[in-house]
Amino acid sequence: MKISILDQSPISSNQTAEEALNESMELAQMGERLGYERFWMTEHHDLPGLACSAPEVVLSYIGAKTDAIRLGTGAVLLPHYKPYKIAEIHHQLATLFPDRIDLGIGRAPGGSAEVTNALNDNFLQNVYKMPELVGELLAYLKDQVPKVSASPIPSASPTPWMLGTSEKSAVFAGEFGLSYVFGQFMSDEDGQEIAQQYVDAFTPGKQAQTPQIIVTISAICAETTAKAEEIALSPLIWQLQKEKGNEGHGIPSIQEAKNYPLTDKERERLESMKQRMIIGDPQETWAQMQEIQAKCQADEIMIMTSPYSPEDRVRSYEYIAGEVFKR
Q: Could you report the per-residue pLDDT of 172-221, keeping only the tens digit for each?
């Protein structure tokens, strides 16, 4: 099984954004040492607990500090931007770090309505134009646009991936012949059905010869399930706080999370969120990852882990890698 890292550059309540970004760099270095396939960064805007508003900038820093692990934007939110500029950015990265760059394409706003308006006056119109925008972006990546080149042209073009959480995105990726990333941790949809829709819609030769699927999960792995449950409480409580518009100064400590006064409705919501996560010891985590891989025909599992403690985050990835690669 190939495994990869999805990083949001989370800021804990006792950290600065600078510290969180350096933790991301060190996490990428660790992932490279342990054998993780790729390191992707998300794009979010105006969230006090996340430091990843410009993943392409951070990836240039991480690329200079690593040697081989693939690096990617997961995802660049295309409706906010002109395809030409996105092609330029990723060509620049691919020129600096040959044959290491992935371009994940998404269409979510990545922030509030106010942030969306601050980024782009025509976001919704551009969402409806996604097929046109993606086609234009792919043409620039292939250097197939007359009289316009998204230079510098790298020796190895960035690899495009379509990210999504629904049947619509899966079919879209398949029809474009793109590799597909299913965000299971954000979706209530049946991953098995969505994966099959993608495979059935896949058109060989447009971008890739065969369908490729990455499933992205949220996981907390520790030496015991009880410890993993304790660690997972911090990001879960922070998610509840975000939904109430009260995310404070970042991910709360475990003690702060334990002290958070939950309403009955929030307890139900907490249990619902836990169902989207893998929380367990290494053997339990491995077993659930295998189940997801088989169910979704996944070529790779990408893991997002965002606890309060950077040490707990590193250990979680270490436990998972140790369990996966010992086989």
A: 999 999 999 999 999 988 999 999 999 999 999 888 899 999 999 999 99
pLDDT the model gives residue 300: 98
Helix 167-175 crosses helix 191-201 at what angle (to 10 degrees)?
A: 20
Instruction: Give the residue from 188, 169, 178 showing the smallest Cα distance to 106.
Output: 169
Q: What is the DSSP letter of 98?
A: T
Tokens of 8: 């949001």
Q: How confident is the model at residue 244 (pLDDT cuts 50, 70, 90)?
A: confident
What are residue 297's phi and psi, to 5 degrees? 55, 35
Helix crossing, 282-296 with 191-201: angle to 10°?
A: 40
Cβ atoms of 282 and 320 within 8 Å: the answer is yes
Q: Is the dihedral of CA 122, 125, 128, 132 positive or negative?
A: negative
Domain spanning 2-226+279-325: CATH 3.10.300.10: no
Q: Decide if 166 contacts 189 (C-beta within 8 A).
A: yes
Q: CB count, 10 Å around CB of 24? A: 25
Give 91's contacts (C-beta < 8 A, 6+ positions apart). 141, 150, 151, 152, 153, 154, 157, 158
- The domains of the chain are located at 2-226+279-325
